[in-house]
Amino acid sequence: MSDDKTQSWYDIADQHEPAWMPLIGDDGMGIFGCWCGAPYDGDDNGMAWYADHIAALGASDYINEYWANWAGIVEAPTGQLSRDAVARELADYSVVMDQASQVYDDLTGGRISKPNTAARHVISEARDSFDEFAAHDLIEALYADMETDADRKALVDYAESLHPGVLGAYQARVEHRAVRAAELAKEANPS
What we know:
With 191 residues, this protein is mainly alpha-helical. Helices cover 61% and strands 6% of the residues. It has a two-stranded antiparallel sheet.
């Protein structure tokens, strides 16, 4: 066995019968499985025990993911890959990816739509988007009806804490509406 923490494939082959096959990677080969006859330990995780076994041999994360979660779904009991099962899972995956993309896009105000985006980024953008909508709604609904400058200032301070720049955006919308109303009135009563 080599002195460093990584075992050579020769060392592993002495203990196990790894199933080597061409896999995309730096060295072009990778461990897909092991034919050592590792005993099933009786847990209810399906093939998860096997994923743990080949992880110890240095199998890639995606190979471990396959054995832990997919082998029992896409392989026949004989170990042969079921093209029908793979096609069904890929069809479901496609629907999930499409739907997740639409949800991300809507929740983040159009800022994120890639379905593989890390959840923490989607959640952060969604919270920012909700705060922005809340701030705009507060200003829109209440600002004009506030009776005192102190009340307006308190509202603006709170809305600005949710989304900076909300007062300026509100004032721009009010000005735009006034200009548009004047244009419509002029069109309705040309003199």
